[in-house]
Automatic annotation (TrEMBL):
<comment type="function">
    <text>Catalyzes the cleavage of beta-carotene at its central double bond (15,15') to yield two molecules of all-trans-retinal.</text>
</comment>
<dbReference type="GO" id="GO:0003834">
    <property type="term" value="F:beta-carotene 15,15'-dioxygenase activity"/>
</dbReference>
<keyword id="KW-0223">Dioxygenase</keyword>
<feature type="transmembrane region" description="Helical">
    <location>
        <begin position="68"/>
        <end position="96"/>
    </location>
</feature>
<dbReference type="GO" id="GO:0005886">
    <property type="term" value="C:plasma membrane"/>
</dbReference>
<keyword id="KW-0560">Oxidoreductase</keyword>
<keyword id="KW-1003">Cell membrane</keyword>
<feature type="transmembrane region" description="Helical">
    <location>
        <begin position="27"/>
        <end position="47"/>
    </location>
</feature>
<protein>
    <recommendedName>
        <fullName>Probable beta-carotene 15,15'-dioxygenase</fullName>
        <ecNumber>1.13.11.63</ecNumber>
    </recommendedName>
</protein>
<keyword id="KW-0503">Monooxygenase</keyword>
<keyword id="KW-0479">Metal-binding</keyword>
<feature type="transmembrane region" description="Helical">
    <location>
        <begin position="116"/>
        <end position="133"/>
    </location>
</feature>
<dbReference type="GO" id="GO:0005506">
    <property type="term" value="F:iron ion binding"/>
</dbReference>
<dbReference type="GO" id="GO:0010436">
    <property type="term" value="F:carotenoid dioxygenase activity"/>
</dbReference>
<dbReference type="InterPro" id="IPR022270">
    <property type="entry name" value="Blh_diox"/>
</dbReference>
<feature type="transmembrane region" description="Helical">
    <location>
        <begin position="267"/>
        <end position="290"/>
    </location>
</feature>
<keyword id="KW-1133">Transmembrane helix</keyword>
Length: 296
């Protein structure tokens, strides 16, 4: 069972900080966190691709890197021409990616047929939980990205549909998967913690804490173990050094766009669009990483 004690403590620290930070300051600090830990955790995809190619000789590293870059470019183009559809795909891909990272070692392979469905449902539910408690901000950002005015009822209905689907999947796995059963109660408590966090936080602040504390840091640890065979501070520094160039390029690009727009709301839309463009290929890379780990 994964140890989430640090995540819980950090989440409550985030809750405590909401009492002192005005919403605008929450947004600024949240964006800084996303641009540091958040982007760094996805900045070593090329290194992971090379590692996957080393472990699996049937895969071509150059081809995978080309496809990775191509996916980023296509994602950015799609966001420009069909933003609403691309946004839906981004949320779906993010949901699966979050669920896969969180549950990868807590569901046995014997129930693998429902494992992917549960991971997708769980990840989407967490996102809709955040959107449900911050629907006004979500509607503004969606309109900034897509020029479509989203009805708050859509968010509410989607939330309840996912709640039912998650409950059904949860009950099935609880009855049929011993590994899942041993973690189920604790994970329900973690969802309560996230609910409280999302309820009292702004959209960006709540997302930043979840994205960094509950996703990026555990993902970073898994990646370091995959790349270097274990986790130590020395290997963490090695990981950061490898990711540094990509991280700097990302920050410079976003800084240029921000200087052009001079608008926090537009920058929030830009930030989510940027995250979408890199999430699609990143999700595929991590999916292949977990496949290699599963086969070991």
């Amino acid at each position: 069972m994964k140890n989430h004690s640090i995540s819980i403590i950090t989440s409550f620290l985030g809750l405590w900080l909401t009492s002192f930070l005005q919403e605008e300051n929450q947004i600024i600090v949240g964006i800084i966190l996303i641009l540091t830990f958040g982007i760094v955790h996805g900045a070593n995809d090329i290194a992971i691709i090379n590692k996957i190619n080393t472990d699996n000789k049937t895969l071509n590293s150059s081809k995978m890197i080309f496809n990775y870059v191509l996916t980023v470019i296509i994602s950015a183009i799609l966001f420009f021409y069909i933003p609403l559809i691309t946004l839906i795909l981004f949320i779906t891909a993010s949901g699966y990616h979050f669920g896969e990272q969180h549950w990868s070692s807590m569901i046995s392979n014997e129930t693998s047929k429902i494992k992917s469905a549960f991971q997708l449902t769980y990840g989407l539910f967490v996102l809709l939980l955040l959107f449900y408690f911050n629907s006004t901000e979500v509607i503004i950002i969606v309109e900034s990205i897509t020029s479509h005015k989203l009805n708050s009822n859509v968010i509410e209905y989607a939330f309840y549909v996912l709640l039912v689907l998650l409950a059904l999947n949860w009950i099935y796995l609880y009855a049929n998967d011993k590994i899942f059963k041993s973690n189920a109660i604790a994970e329900l408590l973690y969802l309560i913690v996230l609910s409280i966090l999302f309820k009292v936080s702004s959209l960006i602040w709540g997302f930043a804490i979840y994205f960094i504390v509950w996703h990026s840091v555990p993902s970073l640890v898994d990646q370091i173990k995959f790349l270097y065979g274990g986790f130590t501070m020395k290997k963490l520094l090695r990981y950061i050094k490898t990711a540094l160039l990509y991280w700097i390029i990302s920050l410079v690009s976003l800084a240029i766009f921000y200087s052009l727009f001079h608008s926090t709301k537009l920058f929030e839309a830009l930030l989510f669009s940027f995250l979408a463009a890199v999430t699609f290929p990143h999700t595929i890379v991590i999916l292949n990483m977990f496949k290699i780990k599963k086969a070991e």
